[in-house]
Amino acid sequence: MSSHREAPEIAKDPVADSSDLYAFVSPDKPDSVTLIANYVPLQLPSGGPNFFEFGDDVRYEIHIDNDGDGRPDVTYRFEFTTEITNPNSFLYNTGPIDSLDSETWNRRQFYSLTRVADGREHRLAHKLPCPPCNVGPLSTPKYADLVRQATYSLSTGERVFAGQRADGFFVDLGAIFDLGTLRPFQQLHVAGKKIFKAEGEPVNATDRMNVHSLAVQVPLNRVRRRANRYGAGDQASVIGVWTSASRRQVRVLGDRGAADTSTGPFTQVSRLGNPLFNEVIVPMSKKDLWNSLPPSEDKRFAKFVEQPELAALLPALYPDVFPNLDKLNKSKKARADLVAILLTGVPAGLIDGFTNATGDVQADMLRLNTAIPPTRRPDRFGVLGGDLAGFPNGRRVGDDVVSIALRAIAGVTVPLVDKTFRPDAAAGAVTPGLSAADVTAPFLGNFPYLGTPYDGFNNPPASS
Predict the structure, then answer these.
(1) CB 345 within 8 A of CB 360
(2) Is residue 461 part of a domain?
(3) What Pfam families does its record include (predicted)?
(4) Is the bond into 460 cis (omega within 30 degrees of 0)?
(5) Does the predicted TM-score (pTM) go above 0.90?
């Protein structure tokens, strides 16, 4: 749901579909920032013999804006090529894959990494191998070793990884898209009260699913603009981050076995900044347009942030639970709190010791104040929980972004801009009921942070 199948056209093109984006000061290396962009969502681990991979015909990019104009100042570009070792075998592998150059591995993928800054392109690495998909205990018996082999430290200071990981996003998709049901409150739902007598147990719909991750850990001086100081209150400490996928404008299908041909300039087909922005804020008729535009054009969508549809739905779906939100909706006041959180960053003075404002340009980006150090004991509710190192100050892998977003839309953040508003009691408790504990594969304490991908042999787990 963060951006899994969020728009009609990109849902047909999963290899170019950005599903999640993370940006945070690295807890194990606080002089760097970690950026992770996930693609190819909702992977069934047992999906062979053609296991999942990046697209050779897709240009993947992670962008950093460090001057607040909604345009990239630094870009990390990933481009992939695939090689088949044995053209006469239908198998992904014919024996255990114990290294990245294993002769038994039949379909290998490589990538180049290019840094674009100041109008210049600098290729940082060429033909770096990705690890294989996690097939099972016989095919990939020491998967963690393969990941270590596929994690590279570059001479320019970056660390990089590209390959399959466990999906760390947790969300009850089945309930939320069944008329906005939140299982912990299902008995209060306008239709659910006729069916449910008590609260229900949430289900993590993305658990035991995999994604493909682009992860790069970058020294802070490689993403921030030059400044005399980088304090927590200095705008130079704040960066905006988003990811995009692009394809050539023209594709000609080969006839009678001939290879397809792609030509022309690249055009953007997918992007992602804040989780849930295109998924929940942008209307269906405009989702594909949003995917094609840069963040600098997001003023076009500001009215949907100022008056989000979900804010109006909550009082309708849960009668008498959100009376204050209902009054606010009917007043037609623009939601300045949501505009700050999603489009401009939170200005200084609203939250003690915190700002991640980038300026007046309205742009959907993950805004990260790089001068705020990592928290030793992160709070999953991020800034709402008093943890200034968490979402919406960037996004860490364990942040409960669905609950945070729901609570903000329900009115919890309105008092930041309107001291007279009193959030409904339910607003601070609304949640799908999930946390990082509902992700079967544990997160890692270091790069690339997302857990070991689920293997096909054990998913679903075999009964004893």
Answers:
(1) no
(2) no
(3) DUF4331
(4) yes
(5) yes
